[in-house]
């Protein structure tokens, strides 16, 4: 096996596997002219090592190799956790429909009929590399470690449910024929629409996949671009059905947003295989997106109390301070600390302490409401941020917060009766002299330190009270 491995690639690294040297050379010429880095191999033997060294972004393999088939290549790629999202494309002889269908049945990401024009090959390569880049971005997002109390959630890939598939054709008659042929071969739900009534498709539930009849009209290509650019359908799988072997039109369709192309007209068996393969990929990506959204949300939340955490609090206070500098309105920072909390843990156990924290958080949040935010920034310490307020209003709210904790003792499972809990609060309120054209807020660290000094004063004065630190601003 021969290979050409370098440390850098211009557009991406493509591994070409073929037992015939002239085929490999031809593909290399086509791909390197488009600034792709090409690695070559000729057989299955030794491929695992070559994959580890080359780390390709895409694999183009002959349907048959001297010691294996394209399906074996796909299995080797999938066996490497770092490469399992790398697309593997089979190259089959032209007019060999059985080989094309077999490749799709074996789970190959696509199959190209050889010989093919440069434009079509490069359009498919671009399309597949864009899809892999999307997957890589999601993997990177899900692997990042959030800061704060929350721990990152793992991505759980669950079995796919029947998908919603829409058929979009020029005539209702063609749509009915396609629907009837597809319904006999797949478990997904089907709906038929005509291209002239796109609103009907967009007004209902968003399809997981749309099978689009693509003719020579530029309007069909524009339709693909329109669907891919819409917020509702940008993650929907688009499968174009083209009459004949029009490579230029197929290339345009891929560049406009089609995820897969069926050349040679409608073939129910091929269309179903492409739907199944593309929908399975979409399910994985959707679940990765959902995991990423959960991870981002959890990175701002304290898992015990459900309040925001320190990371959120610091970002939120910074935004409040900048808004105040622009508007000239006042804002306030409070640091609150439950009194004698260590004694609660020592006397009743840490689970009881957690219950007190959770209940105290709920009372604080309910009292503050929409006036600002409440965050847990330490063991028993909370931060409250208020925008567009005065010192008088903030002080009134701080006293109400103290009362919300004091007025009703906390019930604990192992305590003979509810136990009294109090809280101490340090407050600093500030107001710029005038809106700042430079938008320079008061130093946040200094304000928080002042609030902490006021909190210490409240503790020293006997706890269960508010102390105010005067602002120089």
From TrEMBL:
In its UniProt record, which GO terms are filed under biological process? Answer: cell adhesion involved in single-species biofilm formation; negative regulation of bacterial-type flagellum-dependent cell motility; phosphorelay signal transduction system
Q: Give the CC-aspect GO terms.
A: plasma membrane
Q: Which reaction does it catalyse?
A: 2 GTP = 3',3'-c-di-GMP + 2 diphosphate
Q: Where is the Response regulatory domain?
A: 13-129
- First-level EC class: transferase
InterPro entries in the cross-refs: CheY-like_superfamily, Diguanylate_Cyclase, GGDEF_dom, Nucleotide_cyclase, Rev_trsase/Diguanyl_cyclase, Sig_transdc_resp-reg_receiver
User: MF terms per GO, please?
Assistant: diguanylate cyclase activity
Any one Pfam family match given in the protein's UniProt record, by short name: GGDEF
Start and end residues of each GGDEF domain: 329-471
What is the E.C. number?
2.7.7.65
SMART domains, per database record: GGDEF, REC
- Name this protein carries in UniProt: diguanylate cyclase
Q: Which organism is it from?
A: Ruegeria meonggei
The record's gene field reads pleD_1
């Amino acid at each position: 096996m021969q290979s050409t491995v370098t440390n850098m690639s211009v557009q991406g690294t493509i591994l070409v596997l073929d037992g015939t040297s002239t085929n490999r050379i031809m593909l290399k010429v086509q791909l390197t002219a488009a600034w792709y880095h090409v690695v070559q191999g000729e057989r299955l033997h030794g491929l695992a090592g070559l994959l580890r060294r080359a780390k390709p972004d895409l694999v183009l393999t002959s349907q048959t190799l001297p010691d294996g088939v394209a399906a074996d290549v796909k299995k080797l790629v999938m066996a490497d956790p770092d490469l399992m999202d790398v697309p593997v494309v089979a190259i089959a002889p032209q007019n060999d429909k059985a080989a094309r269908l077999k490749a799709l049945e074996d789970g190959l990401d696509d199959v190209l009929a050889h010989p093919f024009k440069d434009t079509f090959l490069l359009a498919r390569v671009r399309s597949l590399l864009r899809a892999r880049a999307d997957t890589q971005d999601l993997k990177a997002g899900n692997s990042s470690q959030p800061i704060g109390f929350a721990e990152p959630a793992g991505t759980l890939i669950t079995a796919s449910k029947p998908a919603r598939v829409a058929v979009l054709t020029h005539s209702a008659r063609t749509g009915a024929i396609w629907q009837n042929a597809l319904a006999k071969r797949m478990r997904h739900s089907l709906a038929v629409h005509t291209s002239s009534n796109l609103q009907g498709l967009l007004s209902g539930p968003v399809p997981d996949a749309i099978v689009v009849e693509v003719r020579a009209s530029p309007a069909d290509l524009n339709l693909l671009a329109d669907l891919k650019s819409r917020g509702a359908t940008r993650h929907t799988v688009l499968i174009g059905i083209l009459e004949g072997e029009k490579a230029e039109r197929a290339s345009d369709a891929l560049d406009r947003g089609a995820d897969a192309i069926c050349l040679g007209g409608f073939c129910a068996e091929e269309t179903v295989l492409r739907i199944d393969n593309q929908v399975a990929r979409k399910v994985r990506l959707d679940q990765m997106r959902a995991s990423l959204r959960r991870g981002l949300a959890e990175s701002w939340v304290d898992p015990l109390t459900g309040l925001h955490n320190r990371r959120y609090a610091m970002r939120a206070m910074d935004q409040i301070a900048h808004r105040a500098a622009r508007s000239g309105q006042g804002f306030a920072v409070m640091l609150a600390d439950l009194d004698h909390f260590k004694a609660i843990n020592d006397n009743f156990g840490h689970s009881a302490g957690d219950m007190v924290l959770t209940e105290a958080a709920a009372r604080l949040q309910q009292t503050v409401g929409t006036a600002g935010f409440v965050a847990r920034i330490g063991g028993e310490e909370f931060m409250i941020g208020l925008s567009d307020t005065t010192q008088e209003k903030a002080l009134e709210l701080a006293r109400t917060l103290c009362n919300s904790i004091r007025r009703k003792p906390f019930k604990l499972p192992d305590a003979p009766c509810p136990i009294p809990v109090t809280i101490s609060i340090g407050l600093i309120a500030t107001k710029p002299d005038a809106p700042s054209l430079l938008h320079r807020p008061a130093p946040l660290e200094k304000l928080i330190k002042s609030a902490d000094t006021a909190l210490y004063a409240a503790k020293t004065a006997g706890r269960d009270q508010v102390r105010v630190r005067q602002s120089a601003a």
